[in-house]
Amino acid sequence: MKKRFSLFAAACLFASTMSLPAANASQIASNSIKGSLVITGGSLGSSNAAVYQSFIKLAGGENQAKIGIVPAASGKLKSSKDFKSDLEKYGVKSENIEVLPLSNHDFSDTDFDELKWKNNVNNKELADQIKNFTAIWFVGGDQLRITETLTDKKGKNSSVLDAIWTMYKKGGVIGGTSAGAAIMSDVMITGGDSLGGLKGEFTEKDEPLQNKEYEKVYIEKGLGFFHYGIVDQHFDERARLGRLAAAAVKYEKRKDLYNSYGIDEDTALIVHNREKKAEIVGRGGVTVIDTSKAKPASKKVHPVNNVSVSFLSPGDQINLQTKEMTINPDKDATKGNEYYEFKPLDATGLLTPYGRLKPYLAYSLTDNSSTQSVKSYLYDSKGKGYALTFSKTASTNGYWGYQDGQKDDYSITNVKLDAVPVSVKFKKDKTAFKNYKPSNFKVPDKVNRGDISGNLVIAGGALGSSNEAVYKKFLDLAGGNSKAKIGIIPAASGSLSSSNAFKKDLIKYGVKEDQMKILPISSHDFKGTAEDESKWEENRNSDETAAAIKELNAIWFVGGDQTSITEALFNPDQTESKALSAIWDIYKKGAVLGGTSAGAAIMSDVMLAGGGSLDTLSKGFTDTYNGMEQQEGGPAYLERGLGFFQNGIIDQHFDNKSRLGRLIATAYDKGDRSQLSYGIDEDTAMVVNNKEQKVEVVGRAGLTVVDLSKAEKKKGHFKNIAISALAEGDSVDLKQKTFAISPHKDSTKGYEYGDFKAAPHSGVLTPHGTLKNYLSYNLVDNSGENIVKSYAFHQGKGVELVFRKTETTDGFWGYKDGGKDDYSVTNVVLDIHPVSVRLK
């Protein structure tokens, strides 16, 4: 039986006195430290040049750096050897990098017994060698192995640890990833999760895992290199806001002076002790938690209250002494200039748009003029948990800019967080969707196009300029850099900036400017130009435009509003214009057609033009379209697409906007259920080879494939939907409807890494929050569960999503870009049930 803690008991736990040993006096005098820290949140990609180069620069540069790698945290020597190879790739001489013989356990991938290295921690020769290094790096694994290796049972420093401190105080740099980040603060978070933290369950001793749906937050003493608060890692991926906020309330004794810091994977917090400043470098962000204004806990007040939450992105900085944050000057403040104006749904599970914490608060709160607060939940399978309210205050602001091309890049300051206990009860409800409206959209008749020799590169949106794999695939299919003749159709956008940006990207990848042209195809005027582009509407039936298209071997549709593309290329009576016929002509002969976002939506015959997942499942469809606002929610709106993809329905921005529900509802009602349907993630492309009848996944995220061939629907209930989540290097046979998984991955079936009870996916603090990762970590690579659940609800009505294993379910795991987990999932079965919801 699970232990239940009352709010008062939790408050008492938060109020208890920290029993950890006090920091050494030498560690407290931060003014004496001249060195720096590179604290990395885990899963550091080998290609993350910004972090590696920062570390090497602080170590003295490629030629002067002398780096020692501490392997103690890992169970293998491989991670240390790999890090050494990465440093060499970035220019450090091999002879200036040494894997230090420091461990308190044997490694599984060597013949030598590294347990014998334990005595090296007090070896004078090794200590003297370390004093002359310019940098130390701690690899990931188990942080306790590091502290137990470098200190004795009473917490006393070894000679080697004293030597590392000497190097650091003189000006050396200390870095680490994952476990190597956790050891950086004096208060070290060693285990546990957000639900355990909010329940007030802490431990300061090593206890066996309880196989609960949550774990107590385990606190030990770290090495204290970072003097300005508590550090946590794998922060966004494992949704650790709750555990860090709770730990900060309980264990941070100088809340007035110090924040706490949650560092995302593939991201570093770089600390400059001399300047008492830190900067963010890498691919994710750093969450800054200020608990200085939290009110004392009581029976009516949860300990995590009035907590200030900020999100810093690469290029942002923080003054560690004053807590003042400096945002990258390339970003504009959103306060008073909010882009969005829509009523966001609560973040309740896998169907919530922008369902990770920072995107949810950025799009739904700080850059949205229509709301002052948003809410999410975190609870166990019994419905016991917490409602989390995120609110704007007078000091709240958001900052927006572009990164890596035209991808949104947000920073957020001073959002207020309050946690309140809640009990959530779900009951299956046959009447929940009694107002469901079917679609009146008439699916266009299939046109026999004959053999198609061309190919498609369909990108899910937010395509990064640095995403070489997608750009290279598009150009290869166009005959290569020198032979490509590319037309860019700007019709979806409100300006020519995205078309010009795409041209610029192609030039970077080797295409000459005279090989590209922006085609004069649009039904509306563009901002920022002297010409009235609405007059281009006539060009759709211009012989000159059609002739120009026929000279091309590649077409690209930029993003924006997909209805503007179809309006520009179909005649008012829905017949094909001459321009569209010309595109079909070159496509059939071998041209490649590509597009991103709106340019992906138009690829299938049935075009998803608007709507959200929960609204579509519960309310159905609408015959009216109110523009881009409808992209953020509401019933689904369908129009006729251009039909270049002949094998099913496509949706885009799939992971970020959580569009699984709307794709399922649309494909079931308006699709051919003998075909698969496809949801393409951002910064990822679905590459279609028509001759081979094959789909290949290219890019940085994934492709969700929905199989409705065995699905049933009755009064809003769906049964037997097959869900597969593919990644780069995987492919789909369109004829056989089978999957080929990248050969670098191994099947997890029968070899599952995890063995635990998984809590439902309930909101923005659910670990591994994207669809693919939630199914990977919690279901297919977990022998402890055969089903996992998620919920989505609004105003007392919603859906229960039940994902289950069957005999045909499999998972596949490997590493990518260094030591990052890379999963694929095939044939998880999904059932969807309408439910009524009661909160108290």
Automatic annotation (TrEMBL):
<keyword id="KW-0732">Signal</keyword>
<dbReference type="GO" id="GO:0008241">
    <property type="term" value="F:peptidyl-dipeptidase activity"/>
</dbReference>
<keyword id="KW-0720">Serine protease</keyword>
<comment type="function">
    <text>Exopeptidase that catalyzes the hydrolytic cleavage of multi-L-arginyl-poly-L-aspartic acid (cyanophycin; a water-insoluble reserve polymer) into aspartate-arginine dipeptides.</text>
</comment>
<keyword id="KW-0378">Hydrolase</keyword>
<comment type="similarity">
    <text>Belongs to the peptidase S51 family.</text>
</comment>
<protein>
    <recommendedName>
        <fullName>Cyanophycinase</fullName>
        <ecNumber>3.4.15.6</ecNumber>
    </recommendedName>
</protein>
<dbReference type="InterPro" id="IPR029062">
    <property type="entry name" value="Class_I_gatase-like"/>
</dbReference>
<dbReference type="GO" id="GO:0004180">
    <property type="term" value="F:carboxypeptidase activity"/>
</dbReference>
<dbReference type="InterPro" id="IPR005320">
    <property type="entry name" value="Peptidase_S51"/>
</dbReference>
<keyword id="KW-0121">Carboxypeptidase</keyword>
<dbReference type="InterPro" id="IPR011811">
    <property type="entry name" value="Peptidase_S51_cyanophycinase"/>
</dbReference>
<dbReference type="Pfam" id="PF03575">
    <property type="entry name" value="Peptidase_S51"/>
</dbReference>
<feature type="signal peptide">
    <location>
        <begin position="1"/>
        <end position="22"/>
    </location>
</feature>
<keyword id="KW-0645">Protease</keyword>
